[in-house]
Design goal:
The complex is a heterodimer of chains A (106) and B (167). In chain A, helix 1 runs antiparallel to helix 2 and helix 2 runs antiparallel to helix 3. Chain A starts with a helix and ends in a 13-residue tail after the last helix. Helix content of chain A is 74%, strand content 0%.
Chain lengths: 106, 167
């Protein structure tokens, strides 16, 4: 029997993978992908809670799904801006390695 | 949905999610991320959120990952050369991530709702696109408009960022 707890643990594991990726990897594009993993782990737990809160008419709670929709939209905009910044950084410094970019002014 | 499908898709999602972090080749990471999102979308559908599942495939596996692959190939990133690994950072990072997961595990374990199965839906046929759309245009109309402005700002910002030389 699959319970709410299973989905929450899987979501927590996915978030942990993304979190570890941000902490361990030094390539800025991989760090960016790990951020996406964390956002999607949050989405999974939101949808699981939405399915868990069934109202009297037998409908899942759609507020959480609207919230997930907003998160996906904002994440898509964030990816576009972030990748543009990475391209600008690469043009200026010829690197995507975060340890090569450790000064505030250049 | 049968329980083994949950385990299958959860395993696909977590396995390819781990592959994103472990792979040294950025293109392999990006393709693993696509498969990870496919598994996630199947999990969304197992929770009867069909609209979110489809949106996940269209937006992430379709648009966002094409953008990632495009940038990786534009920058011509090869397999990164091995650098000296900072042992303190690796051990510390793993310890923090592990501590985070242990904490999530105990919090979920104490949640009494987490042990209950999902309640049955009223009818097997749901108009979830219609219901999400109704909420978007009634209760959440203002946030929806703000998101529209945000996407416009992001579009203009990307054009400005990619036109000018940052010196």
């Amino acid at each position: 029997m699959i319970t709410l707890g299973h989905y929450l643990i899987v979501s927590g594991l996915l978030f942990t993978i993304g979190f570890a990726g941000v902490l361990l990897r030094r390539n800025i594009i991989i760090i960016f992908m790990s951020l996406e993993l964390m956002l999607n782990a949050a989405n999974l737990s939101l949808v699981a809670f939405s399915r868990f809160r069934v109202d009297s008419a037998g409908m899942p709670n759609y507020n959480a799904q609207v919230f997930v929709f907003f998160i996906i939209t904002v994440a898509a905009a964030e990816v576009a801006v972030g990748l543009a910044i990475i391209v600008a950084l690469y043009r200026a410094r010829q690197t995507t390695h975060v340890e090569d970019v450790n000064s505030l002014k250049f | 949905m049968p329980a083994f499908l949950f385990w299958l898709f959860a395993l696909v999602m977590l396995g390819f999610g781990a592959a994103v972090v472990i792979n040294r080749n950025p293109i392999a990471s990006a393709l693993s991320l696509v498969l990870c999102f496919m598994g996630l979308s199947a999990l969304f559908m197992s929770l009867d959120a069909f609209f979110i599942g489809i949106i996940q495939v269209l937006v992430y596996a379709g648009a966002v990952m094409v953008l990632f692959l495009f940038i990786i190939m534009l920058l011509d990133l090869r397999v990164e050369e091995r650098r000296k690994i900072n042992v303190v950072a690796v051990v510390g990072g793993s310890a923090v991530a592990l501590a985070f997961f242990v904490q999530v595990y105990f919090v979920v374990g104490q949640l009494s709702a987490a042990k209950q199965p999902f309640p049955a839906l009223g009818s097997p046929k749901m108009d979830d696109v219609r219901n999400v759309g109704l909420l978007l245009f009634t209760n959440y109309n203002l946030p929806f408009q703000i998101i529209g402005v945000l996407v416009l700002v992001a579009t203009i910002g990307v054009i400005v960022l990619s036109k000018r030389e940052l010196r």
